[in-house]
Backbone:
């Protein structure tokens, strides 16, 4: 049976979930991400998994491992494995200099957060399976400081998006094979620049269709597991206790978001490349 994943918006969170969301903000310096908002549909699952991940975010271990992951993820083998730059077939888009700066800030914000989340999800996969535990904080003293926010524009609700932009983003999600109905936060932010979305959506769609993004995603998932391994105590029984239904939902969410987070890292990289060179205000 395929479990349906449901997102709980911060504004709609019941008190117990709101307290967890507030703690996530306090520890990470960021709003709850889509994975956490999805787990919130099962508050016990969010509570238990956040309790396991909290030390890794508080110590900066996931931020440090994510930063290392950014520098070492290899290209897949084969001449056509890496996604070709969007510049080859993206329509030119006039972006004011301030807009170009804002778009890059959005991409940097999500890339930094998603790198740490990719490692956290890889660790959580093992923790929920009961085959490892997160290492005590004393073993993580060399980690970087916790993630901190960067100023970015707020996301758009789907109903606030232009109809053509919403349709283009939904088409991209469908081409990725995602049937959850959830919209990644990166897309909700980029929807504030309709001309940009409409220009790059066909090029991104072709990268999904020819499988090059999927190959990059597979590489990133493997590298995230490698990055998480030093943060875990192998063959240690997890203290995570979940009812069967909550555990099944958590496992489904972890599996879905391991792929989705890696996918958004690839998409952000393609968009960043498309915005280069930095002095330009166009996707050339």
Residues:
């Amino acid at each position: 049976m395929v479990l349906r994943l449901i997102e709980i918006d911060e504004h709609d969170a019941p008190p117990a979930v709101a307290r967890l969301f507030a703690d996530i903000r306090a520890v990470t310096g960021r709003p709850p991400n889509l994975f956490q908002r999805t787990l919130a549909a099962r508050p016990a699952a969010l509570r238990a998994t956040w309790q396991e991940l909290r030390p890794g975010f508080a110590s900066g271990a996931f931020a440090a491992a994510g930063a290392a992951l950014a520098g070492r993820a290899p290209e897949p083998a084969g001449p056509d494995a890496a996604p070709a730059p969007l510049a080859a077939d993206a329509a030119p888009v006039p972006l004011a200099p301030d807009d170009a700066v804002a778009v890059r800030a959005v991409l940097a914000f999500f890339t930094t957060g998603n790198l740490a989340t990719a490692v956290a999800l890889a660790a959580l996969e093992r923790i929920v399976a009961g085959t490892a535990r997160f290492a005590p904080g004393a073993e993580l003293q060399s980690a970087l400081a916790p993630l901190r926010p960067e100023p970015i524009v707020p996301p758009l609700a789907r109903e606030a998006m232009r109809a053509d932009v919403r349709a283009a983003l939904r088409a991209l999600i469908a081409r990725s094979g995602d049937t959850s109905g959830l919209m990644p936060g990166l897309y909700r932010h980029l929807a504030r620049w309709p001309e940009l979305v409409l220009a790059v959506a066909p090029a991104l769609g072709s990268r999904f269709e020819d499988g090059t993004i999927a190959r990059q995603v597979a590489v990133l998932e493997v590298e995230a597991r490698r990055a998480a391994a030093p943060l875990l105590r192998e063959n240690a029984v997890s203290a995570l206790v979940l009812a069967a239904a909550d555990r099944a939902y958590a496992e489904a969410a972890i599996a879905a978001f391991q792929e989705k987070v890696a996918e958004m890292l690839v998409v952000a990289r393609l968009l960043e490349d498309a915005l280069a060179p930095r002095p330009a205000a166009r996707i050339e």
Notes: Residues 93 and 195 are 6 Å apart (CA to CA).
